[in-house]
Amino acid sequence: MKANQNQNKNPGRSRACENEGFLLSADLEIQLLLHLHIYIIDQRMIAQLSQIAEQGLLD
Length: 59
Hints:
Number of strands: 0
Helix content: over 70%
Mean pLDDT: 78
Largest sheet: none
Distance between the termini: 73 Å
Order of helices and strands: HH
Number of helices: 2
Low-confidence stretches: none
Number of domains: 1
């Protein structure tokens, strides 16, 4: 009952919390995608370096 009264006092606060939660979720998703992208690039570079090493072009 008390929580319901608090929501009635400041209805915009509920919306702000909801928006903040969405932004935090979006931020975490962006961070995850960046890490995944960097990981994929690293894996490609490792594969290319391995290929170069196998060809004997890398001392």
